[in-house]
GNAT family N-acetyltransferase
Amino acid sequence: MIRKAKIKDIKQIQELINTFAKQDVMLPRSLNELYENIRDFWVMEDKGKITACAALHIPWDDLAEIKSLAVAKNKQRKGIGKLLVDACIDEAKVLGAKKIFVLTYKPGYFKKFGFKRINHASLPHKIWAECINCCKFPNCQESALLKTL
Ligand SMILES: CC(C)(COP(=O)(O)OP(=O)(O)OC[C@H]1O[C@@H](n2cnc3c(N)ncnc32)[C@H](O)[C@@H]1OP(=O)(O)O)[C@@H](O)C(=O)NCCC(=O)NCCS
């Protein structure tokens, strides 16, 4: 079942994200960042355990962002990532966003949902404020992709 995250899920969400971050396939998230942005998060709960998550963030104007998409290794390729991406896209539409983007190491995955590669520089300056604080800056290999809603 996918649902919006609750405070009690945060530590499991961090464990899930940071397991992949250690493998360099996504960016790590601090507990502080996760608590402050809890209302962005969707999770998949399976027998009381959080097995997947994704966040829908609104950084600016009519622009939405999918962040922190992760599905536990033993739950991958079962359509859970798709459920979460679709939930984020639907939520962005309900909020009135006109475009949705993602910064990712897996551009091929997001292309399946109609995202198209764009130049990082075309994103609002505010996005760069977060990049500057990232441990990967300035050597980030993430691709930027955007979908019009
Ligand atoms: C990338 C990830 C989120 C995919 O989640 P998932 O639940 O395994 O994916 P789904 O089962 O929903 O796959 C949906 C479709 O995408 C395909 N797909 C899955 N992983 C893919 C990848 N890395 N590249 C391209 N296509 C992929 C599936 O084959 C499926 O295609 P189909 O509909 O034609 O059968 C998951 O592998 C993951 O968490 N990886 C580690 C963290 C990570 O890399 N996150 C990326 C976001 S920054």
The first strand starts at residue 2 and ends at 4. The pocket of coenzyme A is lined by residues 20, 25-26, 69-71, 76-82, 104-106, 108-109, 112 (CB under 6 Å). The beta strands are 2-4, 41-46, 49-60, 63-71, 99-104, 116-118, 143-148.
